[in-house]
Amino acid sequence: QLQLVESGGGAVQAGASLRLSCAASGRAFGTYHMGWFRQAPGKEREFVSAISRGGGTLYYGDSVQGRFTIDRDNAKNMMYLQMNNLKPEDTAVYYCAAEMLDYITKFTADYGYWGQGTQVTVIS
Fold first, then answer.
1. pLDDT tens-digit profile of 12-54?
2. 46, 61 contact by CB (below 8 A)
3. Strands, DSSP E only, in 8-101?
């Protein structure tokens, strides 16, 4: 089993930055591909970013490309999402997730472990 806990959310003005953290405990963190997803009220959960086990492969959703950066520290069992130039449309609950497939993926159904989420609100 793997437990995931997000932190770092909050309410900020448009154009500001936030850094989300995901702390993992349980089985070996470095064996999982990791991802960030978000869900706004009334919308489906949306892919934000993913990172491979070793950190060498990164994926980003089109809406965050160039503004968000994902990274991980396997020695600390941590994953991060640096979010710059935040926009009101980035407002959502952000979730970290883990999967053990042989490939990195953008699909929610492929992720077997999820955190409880952290709220990000961007005020215009």
1. 999 999 999 999 997 799 999 999 999 999 999 999 999 999 9
2. yes
3. 10-13, 18-26, 33-39, 46-51, 58-60, 68-73, 78-83, 92-99
Length of the chain counted residue by residue: 124
The pLDDT mean for the chain works out to 96
- For 112, which DSSP code? -
Half-sphere exposure for 18 (CA within 13 Å, toward CB): 21
How many Å apart are CA 106 and CA 98, to the nearest integer? Answer: 11
Alpha carbon separation from 59 to 3, 10, 14, 44, 73 (Å, rounded): 23, 24, 24, 19, 17
pLDDT tens-digit profile of 61-119?
A: 999 999 999 999 999 999 999 999 999 999 999 999 999 999 999 999 999 999 999 99
Q: Rounded to whole angstroms, what are the CA distances from 18 to 48, 57, 71, 75?
A: 15, 22, 14, 23
